[in-house]
Amino acid sequence: MTPRRLDLLALVLAMAATLASIAVGARVFERLPHLEDEIAFLWEAEVMAEGHIALPSPPQPRSFLVPFVVDYEGLRFGKYPPGWPAALAIGARAGAPWLVNPLLAGLAAWLIYRLGARLVGRGVGLLAEALTILSPMFLMLSGSLMGHMLSLVLTAAFWLAWLDLFPAQPGTAPGRRTHSALIVSLAGLSLGLLALTRPLTAVGVALPAVVHGAWLLGRGGAARRRVLLIGALAVAVASLLLLWQAALTADPLRNPYVLWWDYDRVGFGPGHGHTASGHDLHWAWINTRHSLRAGMHDLFGWPFLSWIFLPAGLWALRRNRDGWLLFSVLPALVAVYALYWIGSWLLGPRYYVESLPGLAIVSAAGAAWLAGWIGAAARFARIRRRAVTAALLLLTAGNALFYLPIRLGGLHGLYGISGARLQAFEQIAPRRGLVIVHTSRVWAEYGTLLMLTPPFADGDLLLAYARDAQSNARLERLFPGLPLYHYYTDEPTRLYDQPR
């Protein structure tokens, strides 16, 4: 197949990634936030879409709970860095925040193809792209409102630029000054924006480049200038995080994370994590082990076998310095997230998703090498081709027919959040008024309904989270001009004028 046709096929696959992500967002998640993180991201995005970064705190803030949205010194704002909410705000402004991640997913798939084509060849790049768009972790995150698709795009863009600027083979770096300046800008901006999106992730993604860059500094010449320019640009952009924190908290070094949980810090010892002794190597190992085990399944949807082609891929790329640099993002992310007190595997090992380009490309290279599609002429070439092709088809079919439906289906209605619950309340909700929501199980029953209130929607409807009787009675005095209602989530078709 000609390079042009392979590029065209890669573009078709990128479009398929976008469409698949839209389908997951609509059918599995119903275009609703389900995690506390998602609600906070969307809240901040809606605020940004109106030209603000914070809102005045409401009276009695604890009654107007928005998960992971902080009230501090009279201001209400999300605890997260500004990168992803700002990107999501573009979709919110257009009335389609659910579309941002699918578009980024298509771009991420295309960039992974370009990386694979550059490192090994277009055929391997195409296989890596196909593995990516069938990855359960990729589809779960791209269908959600989490920020990992943006960080995946920025990671792939950074490494594509870095490897173009500093190739393993001398003399293949961009020669034209204008071309080189653009790629330097792309690398620096991508890494800086990644720091504004997921700061700890940016450290892990940058670590292999920092080691490589330190070696390049010793060589002098154009390579040294480019490394220094990339570093300066990345630091300049990343420093905007300090301005963001200063604008919200009046202290550039105050991390809003600790305003929600004062133990939400990176590092070891007391005050890091919710245990009395704090985060330590024991808990770091437990979190890492759980995340890597989840990756055995959720990486490509091959239960216990998602890592199966990695050893062959690492062998096939044993002399490919650039391939090893990209793959080393995984151990770097594992190392930096060992410093964080909590793991994450509900949507796959999402703290490591930025290593997906390296994992997909090395896995694709391993399959291609075993099949004899790359490398020296292989013995038993025909048998190997047929065996590897059959294995890939069998694994892919098992993922598409069994693993993906079960894994994605298990997320539908997560934490009781569903469109049906929202619609049931919408049918009886007043256009104007204050509704105190009494939950029967978890906060999520209340969180679902927030989508009908500002800043998520225009109108004069306010929702309050039921606390104790005194707090609820105080709300009536705080809002004397609003009709007051009580809503019980175990009775979803009725409003009460008084507590029942």
Task: Walk across the major sheet and give the strand order.
Answer: 5-4-6-7
The parts where pLDDT drops under 50 for at least 5 residues are none
- Tell me the distance between the termini: 71 Å
Give average pLDDT, whole number: 95
- Count the beta strands: 7
Q: Which of globular, elongated, flat, extended, rod-shaped describes the shape?
A: globular
Number of helical stretches of at least 4 residues? 21
Q: Kindly give the count of domains.
A: 2
What is the helix content?
55-70%
**What structural class is derived from the secondary structure elements?**
alpha/beta
Radius of gyration (CA) equals 25 Å
Main β-sheet description:
4 strands, mixed
Percentage of β-strand residues: 5-15%
Give, in order, the helices and strands.
Answer: HHEEEHHHHHHHHHHHHHHHHHEHEHEE
Could you please describe the fold and organization of this structure?
- The protein is of the alpha/beta class.
- It has 2 domains: 3-32 and 81-407, no CATH class; 416-496.
- It is built from 21 helices and 7 strands.
- The chain has helices at 3-27, 36-49, 83-93, 100-119, 122-133, 136-142, 148-165, 177-197, 199-217, 221-238, 240-249, 257-260, 281-298, 310-316, 321-327, 329-337, 356-371, 381-409, 419-428, 444-449, 469-478, and strands at 55-56, 69-72, 75-78, 432-438, 460-465, 484-488, 495-496.
- The strands form 2 sheets. The chain has a 4-stranded mixed β-sheet with strand order 5-4-6-7, with no helix packed on it. A 3-stranded antiparallel β-sheet has the order 1-3-2.
- Helix 20 (444-449) links the parallel strand 4 (432-438) and strand 5 (460-465).
- The chain is globular and about 80 Å long.
- The mean pLDDT is 95.
